[in-house]
Amino acid sequence: MVPLQDNRIYWFSCVNCKVKNSSLRNFTVENLIKIFEGYHDPIPDLLAQTSDNQLLQHDIYDLPPINRFVFGNIVLLGGLFYITLFL
After folding, report:
1. Which of 6, 65, 53, 4 is nearest to 26 (CA)?
2. Residue 87 resides in a domain
3. Contact 46/9 with Cβ under 8 angstroms?
4. What is the pTM of this model?
5. At 2, is the secondary structure helix, strand, or coil?
6. 25 is in which domain, residue-wise?
7. Over the stretch 33-61, which tens digit does the pLDDT of each residue have?
8. Which of 32, 61, 63, 65 has its CA 20 to 30 A from that of 78?
């Protein structure tokens, strides 16, 4: 959960499942409420204030660890999703 401007919040959750699980594409807030039932505050309130059209689903891929983060003039920063070029 990350607070944003104008009293808004960005949040995400992870559900362990196979890649390209088609049932997740049609997930609703109600599905998430069932999965996270019994979790601590503020999770139930966040879910209750979320609408189905605000949900996005993206697969996360677990890559094998690498031994270095510098490759010539390329440095991987902050994770494997950001590439900074030093030319």
Report:
1. 53
2. no
3. yes
4. 0.64
5. strand
6. 2-61
7. 999 999 999 999 999 999 999 998 888 87
8. 32
